[in-house]
Specification:
With 126 residues, this protein is mainly alpha-helical. The chain has 6 helices and no strands. The protein has one domain.
Length: 126
């Protein structure tokens, strides 16, 4: 297994919480105008939520599907809160978020098949 994957396996919860905090902060920060960044708004949603799901799906803790459900509900909650912070909540954003969650899980599953973690090492990872 590569050092990067080993790092993600070891610190998956910290990585996940940092990404979740960043997504939440950026999604609920009032803006006068959207910043000029490459790509579309839906692409940003998709990539952010794929990254959020990737470390959880790569590590696959006992209740990893509940994490995915929590992330989907969290993203829906953010979309509902955005109109109250001078932002626009959209159902298409929510769809891009869920699509990102699914693709992040699929990508992690493929990587786990290509680079399986030895069973003896998995128990030593918190």
């Amino acid at each position: 297994m590569t050092p990067l994957l080993r790092f993600i396996h070891r610190f998956w919860i910290v990585i996940t919480l940092l990404i979740l905090f960043t997504i939440t902060f950026l999604s609920l920060s009032p803006l006068a105008a959207l910043p000029a960044v490459p790509g579309t708004d839906k692409t940003h949603h998709f990539v952010a939520y794929a990254a959020l799901m990737f470390s959880v799906a790569l590590r696959k803790p006992k209740y990893w599907l509940l994490w995915a459900l929590f992330f989907a509900c969290w993203s829906g909650g953010i979309e509902l809160l955005q109109p109250y912070v001078n932002r626009h909540g959209e159902w298409w954003d929510f769809a891009a978020n869920v699509g990102g969650l699914i693709c992040g899980a699929i990508l992690a599953s493929v990587i786990n098949r290509i680079f399986p973690l030895a069973p003896t090492n998995r128990k030593s990872i918190p």
